[in-house]
UniProtKB/TrEMBL annotation:
Residues 128-188 form the V-SNARE coiled-coil homology domain. It is a single-pass type IV membrane protein. SUPFAM superfamilies: SNARE fusion complex, SNARE-like. It comes from Achlya hypogyna (Oomycete). This is Vesicle-associated membrane protein. Residues 7-113 form the Longin domain. Belongs to the synaptobrevin family.
Length: 246
């Protein structure tokens, strides 16, 4: 059945409970009762805990806690409607006795829990607005719980501000480091370019030295003219037309 488990308790004392299933949900329910009791909710408060794929809906009223565990897709408004009727029937049957009764003193109410679970298993209330409101309230309560836990751990507002400032300082340090790295890589690229230019110049010098000699004597104007004249003389000897260079 979608509604798997239900109970009525005062603080952490279970007065009655009913289930046809098996599992560790009873252990979860005791932890939830302890948490609800420590929060000291005002009367007429309802909320939900999500545990291991199930939702524990609870409703507090006049010192008593009414709980039911459902599948996670079970409609919250149906669950709260069941808890409200459970409260009405329990008070009609026992009045104020639940405020002083010992654990499991109202065991006879188990049959009423079973009947209510069967009744609301087949109830389908398709009210989108109610579902949205419940979801918003659930998120709000979760945020409040998270804030409450932060405060309990001693993580005060000033500590949060200090951590925020540290994060900002770390971000500035990271940015400065990035700029320094950028400059380092720029200088490395410049040095590599200069080395490449130097190597090209050396290579050109070696090639020109090999062609013209290390003192470039083979490539000056006088030697070039002398070479041309010698070529012209050789050409004249073999009766070839040749014109000396000016």
């Amino acid at each position: 059945m979608p509604i798997i488990y239900a109970l009525v308790a005062r603080a952490q004392n279970v007065l009655c409970e009913y289930t046809e299933g098996t599992g560790n949900f009873m252990t979860y329910s005791r932890a939830i009762l302890r948490d609800v009791d420590e929060r000291n909710h005002p009367t007429d408060t309802r909320n939900v805990f999500s545990v291991d794929g199930h939702n524990f809906f609870y409703y507090t009223y006049d010192g008593l806690i009414y709980v039911c565990m459902c599948d996670e897709l079970f409609q919250s408004n149906v669950a709260y409607a069941m808890l409200l009727e459970t409260k009405n029937e329990f008070l009609a049957k026992y009045g104020q006795k639940g405020k002083t009764a010992i654990a499991y003193a109202m065991r006879s109410f188990d049959t009423h829990l079973k009947a209510l679970m069967l009744k609301y298993d087949s109830v389908k209330i398709d009210t989108k607005l109610t579902q949205v409101r419940d979801q918003v309230k659930r998120v709000k309560n979760q945020m409040l719980d998270n804030l409450h836990q932060i405060m309990e751990r001693g993580d005060k507002i000033d500590m949060i501000v200090s951590k925020t400032e540290k994060l900002q300082q770390d971000a500035l340090t990271y940015e400065a480091t990035a700029q320094n790295l950028k400059r380092v890589f720029w200088w490395k690229n410049l040095k590599a370019t200069l080395v490449l230019v130097f190597l090209v110049a050396v290579l050109m010098w070696l090639v020109s030295s090999w062609i013209c000699g290390f003192d470039f004597s083979k490539c000056n104007a006088a030697n070039v003219k002398k070479e041309v004249d010698s070529v012209g003389t050789a050409a004249a000897k073999v009766n070839l037309p040749f014109t000396n260079a000016p």
